[in-house]
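BUG: 3D viewer hangs when loading the predicted structure for this chain

Environment: internal workstation, default settings.
Expected: structure renders.
Actual: progress bar stalls at 90%.

Input used:
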Amino acid sequence: MMTYLDFEKEIEQLDKNLDALKNPYESEGISSINQDKITDLQSTIDRKIIEIYSNLNSWQKTKVARHEKRPRSDYYIKNIFQNFQLISGDRYYAEDESVITGFAKLDNMSVLVIGQEKGYDTESRIKRNFGMMRPEGYRKCMRLMKTADKFNIPIISFIDTPGAYPGKGAEERGQAEAIASSIDCCLSLNVPTISIIIGEGGSGGAIALATSNKVLMLEHSIYSVISPEGCASILWKDVSKSNEAAEAMKITAQDLFKFNIIDEIIKEPTGGAHRDPIGCANSIKSSLLKYLEFYNNRNDINIRADRKEKFMKIGKDLPADISFGKFNKDEIIQMSKNKKIILISFLIITILGLLFYLS
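Structure tokens produced before the viewer hung:
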């Protein structure tokens, strides 16, 4: 059953009308199948989908990136690679099922595949921790990346996470250290690494596995240091401003490609990857083969130095007058002043309390 987003109401109604034409005996007043009407209505639906999806704003793209029917890493692994061999555990603490890891064949080439996995229903989402990796997940990935490096095997990672898991246990087991070490590990590899952001690329939880030679994004995916809701909560203390935050943060594939932060936008099927998962999988496979062939034929490239240079250059090419959206300068200045007033008041109260206690 198709799940419709709030900006797809027209499409939803047209689909209902199409279902009525295809199942005439369940609809009052319709007693036969009219193939011409079905064809015309299907054409109308296709045009409407193209019209809507050609004009999505950043917040709408965020909703598409989080769509509950959007294909996950597990789907792409099954439909792009052959002979996938799952490998589990970090050899220190436990298995983290929010990330799928293993070796596979891409056509005739051996690759290491890493995929952050959110799950599809309540049971699988709980099992996968909604795609939020724990320290043991990052350490498992590092273990396998070092193995792949040893045997000269390229690494492919699918990124889809709202962020690293912020729970108490994860912090106690060194979440920040695990993320930092994973980034360092990615930068030190001597084999080609390719990352594809297939849904959400959330903060350090994503960059820990996306520090790659080539970073690709699906057309309707997002990549950011914080969620739009989180940004709105911090800047405006109002989550209803998430739409404005999404626009200002430049989180879409189109914005990030323009700023040279990513290397390619992989076009999705009309209406998003959830409407044609296998078509999207084929597009991803074509891009992967293209870049793997590129590195196979270029012995003159220092892969490790190339990767480091790529990330060191980020931000250097941005124009000086770039605008990052609808942030109200006066509003932010006032918020900063308010924070200073609160801090000063807190310090005064603390000092007075100490003086009272000592007296």
